[in-house]
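Hi there,

I know you've been waiting on this one. I reran it after we fixed the sequence typo, so this is the corrected version. Both the input and the resulting structure follow.
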Amino acid sequence: MNSLKRRKTGSKAVALAFILLLAAAGLGAQSVLKVGTSTEPASLDPQYSTTGATQQASQQIFETIVTRSQNLRMSPSLALSWKEVDPLTWELKLRQGVKFHDGKDFGSDDVVFSIKRIPRVPDSPSSYKRNVAAIKDVVAVDKHTVRILLKNPSPQLPIDLTFIYVLPSTTPENATVDDFNKGKYVNGTGPFKFVEWVRGDRLVVEKNPNYWGQKSSFDRVIFRPITNDPSRVAALLAGDVDIIDNVSPVDQERLRKDPRVNVVSKPGVTLMYIHMDSNRDKSPHVAGKDGKPLDKNPLKDPKVREALSLAINREALVSRILSGAAVPSGQFVPEGMVGYATGLEPDAYDVEMAKRLLAEAGYPNGFSITLHSPNDRYLNDEQVAQTVGQFFARVGLDVKVQALPYSVFGTAATKLEYSIFLMGFGNTTGDAARGMTAVLATYDAAAGLGANNRGRYSNPEFDKFIKAAAVESDEDKREAFLQDAARVAFKQDHGILPLYFQTITWAVRKGLSYEPRMDEYTLANKVTIVK
């Protein structure tokens, strides 16, 4: 009897030790992955905002009609195939056997509902309207076939479909952003089910056991927004999180030497740039050296904008502020992407030429201006802004730099409250069209143009090329239109001032691996356990 008790006691001890060992490794029966993110979503409505943080959260729970690989190649998702029936008609064949998290079967009605809902999403700070602007109607042919009817030919429709997150058709028409943020209608087909969201603290999801694609190695995932770079690294090293994104250049070298973690990097497609109010006659944060308002807004003058571009030492920004974790840029996309224009190199650093251009524009002594920037969104964003401010000062401007949390900064920028500011845009389609259309096309909310044009740059010649590219089916001709548009915006007008493409870096604890993505998203079901 005593021997039996000892055997039972010993077995329990071994089992308990094994459970504790698994728990310590994060691999227990209820395994949990903890992700430290540099930002958090604006909403859990997947159609509310195109911002990267919101899309990253959406992709854990929802899916798009077409998806992109880690290298931005289009691949099947909820649509298995897509074809152009004629220039104004596309047909989609949908994946069968897919269920929403509430058990509803996925089908054509959900795709039709989701596409038609996008223009009706209220108060979106960065709308998806441009991705459905060419669509006239959507028709369910049968349960797994959809036809999309266009207003005009749109060869880039499959690219647009990579941004259409699908909700069930049972979602109420009057569902509000607040309803989604409370989790009421957060019901997708993706790898994880929603559990809870406490803004500023955590987003919790659990594995979808019925997911058709790659299932997660973990039962539960907790996303923790840790906006401060050192704090994010400290949380990883302390074991409070298992993976972090946006590792700052300062921390990368140290972490690469730490045996407790693995560091992975990939050249990104996020362009960092300076956006300017080039539209209003008077701009809110521009004045003379004496502080008095100017008769006209100097940022409307292409010579002034070119002078500011020449004042920026991009090589110094990359080497000193970003420790080499970026590539200087003179246009919207890096070499190799569709729409890259040869000859559009980054403007050379030339203080004397910048001063000369300012004098020719009527500002020999410069002017005063406030440069705004986020301080928790991009790699060393505040330090970059401070350095750019110093470059501007060298050519005669009096510059004040004001850095703010992105939640505050982004809202104000969308409301056109700034004169000049640091911003980023992720070219996650592998194509220049989307970015240039969003950031540089003349603002037209109804047409879905210029959704991110917070400086209201406008040039009819640029718009002509962008619109021609949007309906051109010949790939070579389409790319030529995009290249012509780039030359107008960046060489002729300096509509925005490209700075660099940032490199994105993750760090994961030993025993885990993550394949880095060019779109910079951290997708929890792609975090795997190393055996």
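Quick highlight: Confidence is low (pLDDT under 50) at residues 1-11, 13-28.

Best,
R. S.
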